[in-house]
Amino acid sequence: MNAIDQIKASVLDYWDSFLQHVPKLILGLIILVLAIMISRWLSSLFQNRLSKRLDDQLLSLFLTKILRMALIVLSVLLAFNVMGFTGIAAGLLAGAGVGALVIGFAFQDIGANFIAGVILAFNRPFSIGDTIEIAGVMGKVLSLNLRTTHVKTFDGKDVFIPNNTIVKEELVNYTKDGFIRLSFIVGIDYEDSVEKAVETIIAATLEHKQVLQYEGKKPMVIIKDLGVSTVNLEVRFWVETFDYKDGTGAIRSHVIASVLKNLTSSGVGLPADIVELKYYKGEGFPIKLTNAPNKESKT
């Protein structure tokens, strides 16, 4: 038998072997598709049950993703066994330890982010919908994934922060307890009464129903410092932060506008800063006064 006949015989043997395995391949693919569909159904069922019991959307979503990945891996291994690839499935399981070690060195950041995601799922400083600020990013939390946390900034950017960064970096949560204190500075004339200005400012602040008046969270005004031309008063007030993006900034703007209006109408002066000019030449300071032309006069 020459080389060509040997090649033909080998091809025919492989073809016959392939035809014998076609039913198993088809059955394995059917089992794989059904197993994936069932895994999705089980994941959805698990998420619904877990959400009702835990009352924690973020944790239930994270655990559901882990369960779905585990079910998909088991589905693939089951399909390999049905197709006759038992050796491949056994090899995957046997090499899982070595593979985990190799992958651990190759993808240290991914592993660290995954572990950080597990930590955040059970012990985290925020929930879905909270407004947070971390690593220079401020926005609303949309989801916690296996590797990253999805944050939507107030200017419309979608930022995916590595979970490992959230665990390590300092994080500010503006909506954890639903309250935040806002403040701004207003400068009044030295000749005006501080008591009158404080009463006017408090009254202007209380015109807004969004400003809280609970015990310990009532508006207050303190003397911040003495400026060059003004007595600087700091206005402090508390608001709810469930809608931080649209609510907090708008409330602060409205309160400032009301304070400005009420102080002006009550006769409290709001002088500008004084600029001091020094002239060190001993010849006197040259000043030239020019009357502005009268536009109504006829030339």
TrEMBL record:
Q: Which GO terms describe its molecular function?
A: mechanosensitive monoatomic ion channel activity
Q: Do the record's keywords include Cell division? A: no
- Domain called Mechanosensitive ion channel MscS: residue spans: 112-176
Q: Does the keyword Transmembrane helix apply?
A: yes
Q: Which family does it belong to?
A: Belongs to the MscS (TC 1.A.23) family.
Which regions span the lipid bilayer? Answer: 25-46, 58-80, 86-107
Q: Which InterPro entries match?
A: LSM_dom_sf, MS_channel_C, MSC_TM_helix, MscS_archaea/bacteria_type, MscS_beta-dom_sf, MscS_channel_2nd, MscS_channel_C_sf, MscS_channel_TM-2
Kindly state one GO CC term assigned in the UniProt record. plasma membrane
Q: Provide the species name.
A: Owenweeksia hongkongensis (strain DSM 17368 / CIP 108786 / JCM 12287 / NRRL B-23963 / UST20020801)
The identity of this protein, by name, is Small-conductance mechanosensitive channel
Keywords, A to Z? Answer: Cell membrane, Membrane, Transmembrane, Transmembrane helix
State the organism's lineage.
Bacteria, Pseudomonadati, Bacteroidota, Flavobacteriia, Flavobacteriales
Domain Mechanosensitive ion channel MscS C-terminal, by residue range, is 183-268
Topology relative to the membrane: Multi-pass membrane protein
- List the Pfam families: MS_channel_1st_1, MS_channel_2nd, MS_channel_3rd
* Locations listed in the record: Cell membrane
